[in-house]
Amino acid sequence: DLSIRVRDLNLWYGKNQALKNLNIDLFQKNVTALIGPSGCGKSTFLRCLNRMNDLIPTVHTEGLVEMDGHDVNAKKMDEVALRRRVGMVFQKPNPFPKSIYENVSYAPRMHDIVSRKADQDELVEQALRDAGLWNEVKDKLQEPGTSLSGGQQQRLCIARAIAVQPDVILMDEPTSALDPISTATIEDLMDRLKEKFTIVTVTHNMQQAARVADYTAFFHLGEIIEYNDTKVMFSTP
Ligand code: ADP
Ligand code: ADP
Questions:
Q1: Which keywords annotate this record (predicted)?
Q2: Ligand 2, residues 75, 77, 83: which to mutate, most atoms within 8 A of Cβ?
């Protein structure tokens, strides 16, 4: 089923056009990889899906981005609803300077998904389990998130993103700051998370796209020059 529909999307930073007439359908409960050389617009495109470009004053956008049939840029679409539907994981793990528990429970509490302590505890455990981190942290939930290793911090950030039960998780080069073992762990995790979430991930790494992605979109100079089933895209004729 369709999760995200993008039609005739154009984006400029001042006078420089960074996205050119993008048209793409992203499917639910799949991993889609966005690949292509540095500077071709992958991160810019990702920021169109959660409206983070709104924070950049020089940005001008035209075109349609729909999520589950709702226009993401419609005036009535409230920011809070969007934040609940779309989680984001960045290249560098960026836990809040708070406890592991607080990193995961903060957003669900703010969104009134949970208020009772017991419900919060349960949600924190579930998110940490889904992020494959529970066994490693269950005895130290009150320790700072920043005390964990890089790979664990990134899984904590994934737990934080999924704790609000979004439909979509955006990942911007989620493994490029990690060692090979942590990278493999996150790749395995993506494979499991797609049972519950639609995942859109940016990567430079073709091998990673081939390993994790169901669909791959190849960006070049602000355009999507190929979009296909990953197996078809990487098959050698
Ligand atoms: P990628 O993620 O593929 O490396 P980006 O989306 O970061 O590419 O960048 C696409 C183009 O937009 C580049 O030419 C980049 O210089 C430009 N760009 C990105 N962010 C900004 C910004 N905040 N202001 C101006 N130009 C930007
Ligand atoms: P609508 O109000 O568009 O008829 P709903 O009752 O389903 O549809 O949605 C209620 C509100 O939730 C919408 O007005 C919108 O602000 C928000 N919303 C719905 N879908 C999304 C979405 N995919 N992303 C962000 N916000 C959404």
A1: ATP-binding, Nucleotide-binding, Phosphate transport, Transport
A2: 77
> How many other C-beta atoms can be found within 10 angstroms of the C-beta atom of residue 231?
12
* pLDDT for residue 76: 65
pLDDT at position 190: 97
pLDDT digits (tens, 9 = 90+) for 107-135: 999 989 998 999 999 999 999 999 999 99
Q: Indicate the SS3 state at residue 41.
A: coil
The residue contributing the CA closest to ligand 2 atom 14 is 77
Q: Distance (Å, rounded) from C-alpha 215 to C-alpha 130?
A: 23
- Angle among Cα 10, 11, 16 to the nearest 5 degrees reads 120
Ligand nearest to the CA of 166: 2
Distance CA 200, CA 183 (A): 16
Question: What angle (nearest 5°) sits at the alpha carbon of residue 12, between those of residues 6 and 14?
Answer: 160
Asked whether the beta carbons of 167 and 195 are under 8 A apart, the reply is: no
- CB of 144 closer than 8 Å to CB of 97: yes
The answer to whether 216 and 228 are in contact (CB under 8 A) is yes
Q: How far is the CA of 72 from the centre of ligand 2 (A)?
A: 9
pTM: 0.88
- 27 CA distance to ligand 1 centroid (A)? 25
Alpha helices in the chain (DSSP H): 42-49, 79-85, 100-110, 117-130, 134-137, 150-162, 180-193, 206-212, 230-233
CA distance 205 to 226: 16
